[in-house]
């Protein structure tokens, strides 16, 4: 949205929000004039003000439907709003002048107060378009000066007369209104400058993020090709396909092979994260049986669990529980949550995986009985490149991306993940997904 469009739409929205407030002011003034002065003057002037209001309303509705793309339309709307402002300010001023003429040569408290209210209202609410504000204040100012000057010329009173005091008071009031207009205009201009500054900062941040995202994607892809070759070669050595290695060489080769696997997982996580944040990850949604998914996940992580002397126990997977999702991505979710539970379990401990239905949702809960998570750690648990224990001596390794990716995948499924934990007693992660419906 450019600045001209912003100003025009701010002006219109502000005017429409005060529509009924203006109607009450016009109606109140009309009742006062009809009661104490002249009914015909009051009603005719009120109808003229109403007509100007509905002209304003018609133009305002056109502006709100405007998409802001056509610069010529902006100029046309600005002209229309200026003309409608001239019409409405003239209607109010005529109303006030007619009332003043009805009163004769006297102190015009009611008409001048009405005019003061209209001018102050414009100063407070028309500052978005300085040209429109200027036109209104010129018309109101002319009416302000006309009333006391007309009386002075007609009566030619001495300088000690109340009519001269009224004239001087009007000058003070005009100065006050002009000063208020200047203050409100300055505040609005400062607000526009701050909005422009924030937009520029946002654009710079988006550009920097785009460059960073491209960099991560390119580097990750470039690393993946040579790493695949390294992993393949190390795999052959580890498995003895190229002959038996000496004990020391075998140990070093095993370490290198494990680290190459960790590096491959990091690259995969970075690519997944880049796709998710760029909105480019496509989910192949289909009917998925969570009971089978849980069993498959447990089978896939059984080797890791045995290595760490942890038992995996499943509950509630006897009957099918169907959701709509991407099978491979949900397997990735389960792998992240289960591997975390295994890593943070005590040796000889167990991890319980439960599947249950609650209302229209399916819930998978993964419970370990290990170290637990301190209170106030949720941002670190689900953050990027963060871990609850980030010290150099932490018990388990990892990239700090797994649960962040898990949460984003589940959000892409309309699901969620959360946990409850107690230090020294363990943690339970909850994965919630909508049950499958053939109508969706």
Write structural notes for this entry.
This protein is of the alpha+beta class. Among the domains are: 3-156, no CATH class; 286-434, Heat Shock Protein 90. It is built from twelve helices and seven strands. A five-stranded mixed β-sheet has the order 2-4-5-7-6, with helices on one face. A two-stranded antiparallel ribbon has the order 1-3. Helix 5 (109-125) packs parallel to helix 7.
SSE topology:
Layout lengths: L2 H15 L1 H18 L2 H27 L5 H33 L5 H17 L4 H26 L6 H77 L8 H32 L7 E4 H18 L3 E5 L6 E4 L1 H17 L6 E9 L2 E8 L9 H4 L20 H11 L3 E7 L3 E9 L6
Parallel strand pairs: 2-4
Antiparallel strand pairs: 1-3, 4-5, 5-7, 6-7
Keyword list:
440 residues, alpha+beta, Heat Shock Protein 90, two-stranded antiparallel sheet, 67% helix
Summarize this entry quickly.
The chain has 440 residues and is α+β, with helices and mostly antiparallel strands.
Number of helices: 12
Instruction: List the uncertain runs.
Output: 390-395
Computed over alpha carbons, the radius of gyration is 37 Å
* Helicity, as a percent range: 55-70%
- State the order of secondary-structure elements, H for helix, E for strand: HHHHHHHHEHEEHEEHHEE
Whole-Å distance between the termini? 36 Å
Strand neighbour order, sheet with most strands = 2-4-5-7-6
User: Structural class given helices, strands, pairing?
Assistant: alpha+beta
Shape: elongated
* Number of strand elements: 7
Largest sheet: 5 strands, mixed
pLDDT averaged over residues: 84
What amount of the residues lies in strands? Answer: 5-15%
């Amino acid at each position: 949205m450019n600045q001209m469009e912003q100003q025009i739409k701010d002006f219109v929205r502000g005017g429409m929000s005060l529509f009924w407030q203006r109607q009450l002011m016009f109606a109140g003034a009309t009742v006062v004039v009809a009661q104490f002065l002249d009914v015909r003057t009051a009603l005719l002037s009120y109808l003229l003000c109403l007509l100007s209001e509905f002209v304003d309303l018609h133009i305002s509705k056109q502006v709100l439907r405007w998409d802001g793309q056509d610069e010529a339309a902006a100029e046309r709307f600005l002209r229309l709003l200026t003309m409608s402002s001239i019409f409405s300010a003239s209607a109010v001023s005529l109303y006030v002048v007619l009332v003043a003429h009805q009163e004769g040569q006297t102190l015009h408290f009611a008409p001048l107060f009405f005019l003061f209210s209209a001018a102050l209202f414009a100063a407070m609410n028309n500052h978005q378009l300085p040209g429109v504000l200027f036109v209104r204040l010129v018309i109101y100012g002319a009416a302000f000066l006309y009333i006391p000057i007309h009386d002075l010329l007609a009566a030619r009173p001495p300088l000690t007369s109340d009519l001269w005091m009224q004239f001087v008071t009007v000058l003070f009031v005009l100065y006050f209104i002009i000063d208020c207009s200047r203050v409100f205009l300055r505040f609005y201009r400062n607000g526009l400058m701050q909005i422009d500054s924030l937009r520029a900062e946002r654009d710079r941040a988006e550009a920097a993020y785009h460059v960073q995202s491209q960099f991560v994607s390119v580097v990750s892809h470039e690393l993946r090709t040579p790493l695949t070759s390294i992993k393949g070669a190390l795999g052959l050595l580890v498995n003895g396909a190229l002959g038996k290695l000496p004990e020391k060489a075998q140990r070093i080769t095993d370490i290198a092979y494990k680290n190459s696997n960790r590096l491959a997982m990091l690259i995969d996580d970075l690519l997944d994260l880049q796709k998710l944040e760029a909105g480019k990850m496509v989910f192949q949604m289909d009917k998925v049986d969570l009971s089978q998914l849980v069993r498959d996940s447990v089978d896939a992580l059984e080797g890791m669990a045995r290595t760490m002397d942890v038992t995996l126990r499943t509950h509630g997977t006897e009957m099918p529980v169907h959701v709509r999702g991407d099978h491979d991505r949900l397997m990735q979710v389960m792998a992240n949550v289960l591997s975390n539970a295994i890593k943070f379990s005590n040796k000889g401990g167990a991890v319980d995986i439960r599947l249950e239905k609650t209302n229209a949702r399916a819930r998978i809960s993964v419970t370990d009985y290990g170290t637990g998570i301190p209170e106030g750690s949720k941002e670190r648990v689900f953050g990027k490149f963060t871990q609850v224990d980030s010290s150099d001596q932490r018990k388990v390794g990892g990239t700090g991306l797994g649960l962040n990716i898990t949460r984003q995948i589940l959000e892409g499924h309309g699901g969620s993940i959360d946990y409850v934990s107690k230090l020294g007693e363990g943690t339970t992660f909850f994965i919630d997904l909508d049950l499958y419906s053939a109508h969706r």
